[in-house]
Structures are given as structure tokens and as C-alpha cells.
Design goal:
Helices cover 30% and strands 22% of the residues. It is globular and about 50 Å long. It has a five-stranded mixed beta sheet. The protein has a domain of 98 residues: 3-Layer(aba) Sandwich (Aminopeptidase). The chain has four helices and five strands, in the order E-H-H-E-E-E-H-E-H.
């Protein structure tokens, strides 16, 4: 973070922002009713630090107030197999968070648009996200809608049936 800044400003996050990005992500998780385990914070900070310094497909934008971050959006993209009419990457918005004391100032929209534009410029023609009811109107106002085409499904190890041993060979 920039210690000399006095007015909030948008910038791309770096590895040095890991602790503040984790603090903001905790607000997002709390809004979903998720309380992480005690060892989660250092694990999340380490992941942010590593990904922001080594992974060119991982990006975060923040609103920086100088002494703390007010808002952040984190995104990533991955390559797809070639298919006619499709760009080479799919994007995912992984986290959008604003400090509760600084909501309703347009900071989430600002960071979200920066990450969205970064993913589009990287070659993503599709960007996915999961929303809360409170944030749905924001994402819809930015052009995010229900998916068209095949229905997206997600596998979750916590809820998946156990495969029997002799079913697939």
C-alpha cells in the first residue's frame, strides 16, 4: 500500500497487499455466513502473496486509502481447449469485498470493472462469478446474467456420492 496517499484511489494489487486482501475477503465470507478456521488467515495471505507475485493469470484491483484498502476484486483466468468461435480463456471473479465502513461509495464497482476489463483484455469471452442477493443488482447492471447454453454444474466433494469400486474401468 502507498503510505503517502490521502485520497482513495484505484490501483492493481501486489504481493505486499496480501494481509489487507485477506482482511477484506473475511468481510465477504462473513456476508455469506462463513467463518474460517483459525489457521485460514495465514494460509490465505500466503496464497495471495504467491499468486500475485508468480501467476500472470491472477489479478486483483483495490481502492487504496493509504493506510488500508477499502475495497478489492480478485479474478483469474485459465486456458480453454480450442473451439470454433471461442476465445482462448475463461475468467472467474473469485472475490469482491468492501470494508463495511466504506460501502455505498462505488468502490466495489470500480475494482470490479478493473478486474473485468483486465480479464477481457487477456482474452476472456466468458467470465463467471457467484453472487449474493445483495450484490446481484450490481453484477446485472454490468451485463452479467444467467448463463446461456449448457447448464453449468458444479461438483462438490462435501456433497458428492461416493463412487463404488467396480463402476468405471
Amino acid at each position: 500500500m502507498s503510505p503517502t496517499s490521502t485520497s482513495p484511489h484505484l490501483r492493481r494489487a501486489g504481493a505486499d497487499d496480501a494481509a489487507e486482501l485477506t482482511r477484506l475477503r473475511l468481510f465477504m465470507l462473513a456476508s455469506l455466513g462463513i467463518v474460517p478456521e483459525a489457521d485460514w488467515t495465514p494460509e490465505c495471505e500466503a496464497a495471495f502473496r504467491e499468486r500475485l507475485s508468480t501467476d500472470p493469470c491472477f489479478v486483483a484491483y483495490v481502492v487504496d486509502a493509504g493506510d488500508r484498502l477499502l475495497s478489492s476484486t480478485v479474478g483469474q483466468y485459465m486456458p480453454l481447449l480450442p473451439r470454433p468461435g471461442r476465445t482462448p480463456y475463461i475468467g472467474h471473479i473469485a472475490s469482491v469485498a468492501t470494508d463495511p465502513a466504506h460501502r455505498r461509495h462505488g468502490y466495489a464497482r470500480l475494482t470490479f470493472e478493473a478486474v473485468h476489463n483486465h480479464l477481457v483484455e487477456a482474452g476472456c469471452s466468458r467470465i463467471n462469478l457467484t453472487t449474493t442477493p445483495e450484490a446481484e443488482a450490481l453484477y446485472r447492471s454490468l451485463g452479467y446474467d444467467d448463463p446461456s447454453g449448457p447448464t453449468p454444474l458444479t461438483w462438490n466433494a462435501d456433497h458428492a456420492p461416493v463412487a463404488s469400486e467396480g463402476t468405471a474401468r
